């Protein structure tokens, strides 16, 4: 970078050098702390967000984001790299991510339908179960529509994370569909279960327990998640949990009816597309291949018998994989592998670190990613510049009040993450001017009238005082934080500042836009552990109620808990 003559660095406080820690990055200083060079400069422009100008400010920001890239191209900068960010960028990225998910719905449903159709495909045009696949996927889609409609009707907020719910519902719905189809095909092998009513009853007897257990565990897990302190997570859990309920209802009603209708079609020897009866006789080879499944003029088995061959995967698990797992040494090996897996999982949990990478909140090709990279590279030495607000009307002209405020300020400055040399307080400067004998601030009239003297020397302080007539409704001063390098530091900083502000006799509030992210660190670990324990307990209760073997219930609970 080129040489930059100027004020001491770091400076701060009125009457001294300007604090440039948040404006210059990658700096090189001389022995006296003066800036010699800088590799990056951050230019910040403030817009009004109150009153009638808020709309104009938003329009300006939208126009800036839209037009600025073209302006940069016109400048053809070679030696300078420019990245940018606005107060709307993060919210726009959230909304953009939600919109970007919508095209994936069609891709996901197409792939799921394709897989389901291929799984249900048969060579015989009568035994072809393609409609079962279509309707199974359709039932998942109906569950999503029903749950979203109900939640929106009830006024539950639709947040960006809810856009991911359809993918979960589709996976569970298709899984339930295959369980129902497998149970239906199993029922065909029982001679006493020949009519539609008996076979459907047998299907529900076999499949309903599995489907009910999975649905109950899913619904309980998501509804327990609504106990969290985060509104966005509550909305996601409400939408998804309700969708699982609808998915279960559609599977045991709508999809069961589709299975019965499909069975009647097969029993009537009707084509899967036209529903016209297929004649089994001396027809052309092409007709026999399309309608019967082979070129033979006679069907090897009457279509009305609906004899189903076992699926190769069923044969594999039943004849090979099952007996393989029941071997004594294999059981021991499985226990050892599970213990190793559990130990690795626990170790991995201990290595987890709290925190959020803001890059993950934007799309990969977003303009904010380069900005985040530059901000971390050049401006990570200093933490957020925290605003301390004196809320409400305070008698600043009372010397005891000023002393209390100064004591509170010094207490906040004693926080380990605060550099007391970089604080900026209009009241402290105003008091210093008064103590020099230039002005009198010991009564209300003098205090209010002499503010113009302060603003004459320090015009920026006018933005720190909300004055209406002869009353000061609120004011603020700033603390500069340092060494905030991890989520633990961010959590400790927030806790210490809030605790000390709460103990102050003057009504204080600490604020920075980043605190909305720091807040989650205060409760996320407690919420996560609480929800996992409650969910595991609820799943154990469900297993005990629906699974007759207590030992099996215990293993099911262990399996679910270890996955969580």
From TrEMBL:
Record has 4Fe-4S as a keyword: no
Residues annotated as signal peptide: none
Keyword vocabulary terms for this entry: Glycoprotein, Membrane, Transmembrane, Transmembrane helix
Transmembrane regions listed in the UniProt entry: 101-123, 130-153, 165-184, 207-230, 236-261, 532-561
InterPro entries according to UniProt: Patched_domain-protein (IPR051697), PTHD_SSD (IPR003392), SSD (IPR000731)
Chief localisation class: membrane
Domain SSD: 101-261
One Pfam family recorded for the sequence: Patched
Membrane topology: Multi-pass membrane protein
Location in or out of the cell: Membrane
Gene3D superfamilies per the UniProt record, alphabetical: Multidrug efflux transporter AcrB transmembrane domain
UniProt GO cellular component terms: membrane
PROSITE patterns assigned: SSD (PS50156)
Family of the protein in this entry: Belongs to the patched family.
Protein name, as recorded: SSD domain-containing protein
Protein's organism: Callipepla squamata
Upper lineage: Eukaryota, Metazoa, Chordata, Craniata, Vertebrata
């Amino acid at each position: 970078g080129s040489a930059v003559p100027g004020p001491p660095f770091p400076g701060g406080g009125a009457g001294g050098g300007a604090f440039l820690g948040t404006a210059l990055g990658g700096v090189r200083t001389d022995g006296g702390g003066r800036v010699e060079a800088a590799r990056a400069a951050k230019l910040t422009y403030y817009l009004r967000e109150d009153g009638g100008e808020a709309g104009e400010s938003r329009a300006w920001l939208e126009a800036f984001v839209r037009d600025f890239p073209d302006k940069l191209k016109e400048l053809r900068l070679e030696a300078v790299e420019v990245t940018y960010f606005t107060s709307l960028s993060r919210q726009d990225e959230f909304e953009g991510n939600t919109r970007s998910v919508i095209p994936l719905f069609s891709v996901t449903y197409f792939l799921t339908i394709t897989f389901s159709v291929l799984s249900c495909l048969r060579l015989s045009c009568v035994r072809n179960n393609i409609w079962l696949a279509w309707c199974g996927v359709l039932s998942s889609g109906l569950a999503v529509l029903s749950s979203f409609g109900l939640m929106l009707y009830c006024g539950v907020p639709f947040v960006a994370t809810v856009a991911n719910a359809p993918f979960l519902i589709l996976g569970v719905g298709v899984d339930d569909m295959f369980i129902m189809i497998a149970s239906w095909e199993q029922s065909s092998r029982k001679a006493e279960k020949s009519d539609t009513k008996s076979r459907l009853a047998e299907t529900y007897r076999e499949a309903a327990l599995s489907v009910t257990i999975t649905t109950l565990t899913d619904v309980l897990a998501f509804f327990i998640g609504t106990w969290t302190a985060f509104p966005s997570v509550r909305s996601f859990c409400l939408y998804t949990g309700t969708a699982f309920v609808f998915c279960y209802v559609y599977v045991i009603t709508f999809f069961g009816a589709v299975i019965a209708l499909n069975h009647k079609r097969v029993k009537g020897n009707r084509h899967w597309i036209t529903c016209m009866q297929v004649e089994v006789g001396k027809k052309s080879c092409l007709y026999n291949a399309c309608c019967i499944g082979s070129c033979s003029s006679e069907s090897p088995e009457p279509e009305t018998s609906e004899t189903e061959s076992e699926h190769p995967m069923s044969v594999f698990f039943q004849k090979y994989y099952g007996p393989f797992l029941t071997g004594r040494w294999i059981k021991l090996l499985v226990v050892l592998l599970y213990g190793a897996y559990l130990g690795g999982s626990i170790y991995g949990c201990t290595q987890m670190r709290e925190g959020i990478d803001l890059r993950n909140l934007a799309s990969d090709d977003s303009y904010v990613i380069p900005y985040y990279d530059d901000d971390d590279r050049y401006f990570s030495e200093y933490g957020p510049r925290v605003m301390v607000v004196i809320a409400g009307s305070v008698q600043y002209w009372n010397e005891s009040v000023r002393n209390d405020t100064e004591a509170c300020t010094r207490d906040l400055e004693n926080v380990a993450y605060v550099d007391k040399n970089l604080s900026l307080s209009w009241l402290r400067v105003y008091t210093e001017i008064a103590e020099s004998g230039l002005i009198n601030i010991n009564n209300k009239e003098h205090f209010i009238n002499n503010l113009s003297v302060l603003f004459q020397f320090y015009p920026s302080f006018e933005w720190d005082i909300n004055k209406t007539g002869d009353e000061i409704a609120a004011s603020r001063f700033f603390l500069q934080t340092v060494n905030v390098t991890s989520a633990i530091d961010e959590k400790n900083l927030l806790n210490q500042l809030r605790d000390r502000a709460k103990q102050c006799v003057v009504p204080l509030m600490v604020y920075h836009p980043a605190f909305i992210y720091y807040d989650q660190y205060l409760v996320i670990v407690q919420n996560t552990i609480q929800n996992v324990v409650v969910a595991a307990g609820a799943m154990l209760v469900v297993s005990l109620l629906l699974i007759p073997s207590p030992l099996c219930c215990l293993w099911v609970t262990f399996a679910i808990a270890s996955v969580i």
